[in-house]
Amino acid sequence: VQSASWERSVQVEALQDVTREAWQDEIPAGAPVGECTEKVHHTQPDPAPRSVEVCGTAYTVDTGTGHGEVVQDCEYQVYDDWCEYTEKDWVVVDTLVLSGTDLDPRWPDVGAGTDRREGERDEVFTVVFATEDKTVTHTLSDVDRFRQYRIGSRWVLRTNNLCGIASIEPAV
After folding, report:
1. Cα(158)–Cα(94) distance, integer angstroms
2. Which of 52, 113, 143, 166 could be stapled to 160 by a disulfide with Cβ–Cβ 3.0 to 4.6 Å?
3. Within 10 A of 85 (CB to CB), how many other CB atoms are there?
């Protein structure tokens, strides 16, 4: 092992006003409602309040009597109010990153507070192996495995047909 490095990141979330959209009857109780527009909510075969009949092109159906019957398929588009509303939600406001070149990765400190919280975490570990004729970089996500790659330790690398690492075992 020639070198080892790590990077860990934590999203920081804060409670903020967020504008969303929904059907008026699906808006959470108490949420301030903004602008609404009338949109087609669904279609159905029978008339209903706030509906408009929409018919397709007329066509002829063979009745089996030698005479065709002209028919037209119709449905009703039912309209409802589609509205903007505002509610409090956790939103990513920052991403803290901590990195190092040792085998002891640490997480960035988000800090305590009622207005902030820790969000998603991400981590990546990189080990560089020096072979007889080149260096090979190996990226992994398992911290326990990463901690095994002490600088100067020796490993047997087996590669696949695409020159990627297929397996890594300690040298004996």
Report:
1. 40
2. 166
3. 20
H-run or E-run covering 144: helix 143-146
Tokens linked to 119:
């969000």
CA–CA dist 57, 70 (Å, integer): 10
Q: Is 123 in contact with 143 (CB distance < 8 Å)? A: yes
Instruction: Please tell me whether the overall predicted TM-score, pTM, comes out greater than 0.85 for this model.
Output: no
* CA distances for 159 relative to 126, 129, 130, 162, 163, angstroms: 17, 13, 14, 8, 5
Q: Are the C-beta atoms of 163 and 155 separated by less than 8 Å? A: no
Per-10-residue mean pLDDT, the chain, length 172: 97 95 96 97 96 96 91 96 96 96 94 84 96 90 95 91 84 84
